[in-house]
Amino acid sequence: MNPVLSYLHNFFFTVYPYICLAVFLMGSLARFDRDQYTWKSDSSQLLRTGTLRWGSNLFHIGILFLFFGHFVGLLTPHWLYESFISAADKQRMAIYSGGAAGIVCFIGLTLLLHRRLFDPRIRLTSHRTDIAILVILWVQLVIGLITLPFSFAHTDASAMLILGDWAQGIVTFRPHADGLLLLAWPYLIHLILGMTIFLLFPFSRLVHVWSGFATVGFLFRPNQLVRSRRLNVPAGHNLPRQPGAGV
């Protein structure tokens, strides 16, 4: 391999992941600490409902399935599931379920992007980062869908195993990217763009995802104990009115 390409390959798949993770975690913490007012999704529902409901629901359903599917699929060691499902069957399951979720997410995101680009009122109130992150997500989805035919070509699940081995090496701090040289270009671009989304995460409206995950903890909070406070008021006497209370 060309020395420059070899250097870029090693950088993007052994160093860049840690840069993205560090910025993702520390940047999110810094933004929450310094700019809590911006910690929101900036909904444009008040301006025009239109396709927002369909687009938002389809996008969120699809993206959540894809996120957890990638998370579990890439980080689950092969030995953990090989006793009850083969790697090839796991890959086929991932292709069909991930492909369906990707199409759902793509339709929803296309509706949201079209709405933000071509609705004059929403376009005027949109930040450039809002549009940029939607475009990046759209391109990432397209590339992800492009990888499906390549995955069909690897019926032995070799590509899936290589990707899983690389991802598990990253999280265990034993990065090795040599196996990725055997993969087609859509896989590599998909990985780089996916890591870049984590890099841009703290600087975009995507930070509201943290709040979504935090609501899970809200479900398991202890119950609040509320006691009524009874006042003994003699008969014929009225409670004093609160200052500023209107009629």
Automatic annotation (TrEMBL):
Record GO terms (molecular function): electron transfer activity; heme binding; metal ion binding; nitrate reductase (quinone) activity
BP term (GO), one: anaerobic electron transport chain
Reactions the enzyme catalyzes: nitrate + a quinol = a quinone + nitrite + H2O
Primary location recorded for the protein, binned into one broad class: membrane
Transmembrane segments: 12-30, 58-81, 93-113, 133-153, 187-220
Limits of the NarG-like domain: 10-229
Top-level taxon of origin: Bacteria
Annotated keywords: Cell membrane, Electron transport, Heme, Iron, Membrane, Metal-binding, Nitrate assimilation, Oxidoreductase, Transmembrane, Transmembrane helix, Transport
EC number annotated for this UniProt entry: 1.7.5.1
SUPFAM superfamilies: Respiratory nitrate reductase 1 gamma chain (SSF103501)
GO CC term, one of those recorded: nitrate reductase complex
Topology within the bilayer: Multi-pass membrane protein
Assembly and binders: Dimer of heterotrimers each composed of an alpha, a beta and a gamma chain. Alpha and beta are catalytic chains; gamma chains are involved in binding the enzyme complex to the cytoplasmic membrane.
PANTHER family (alphabetical): NITRATE REDUCTASE PRIVATE CHAPERONE, REDOX ENZYME MATURATION PROTEIN REMP FAMILY, RESPIRATORY NITRATE REDUCTASE 1 GAMMA CHAIN
Protein name: nitrate reductase (quinone)
Species assigned in the record: Candidatus Accumulibacter aalborgensis
UniProt gene name: narI
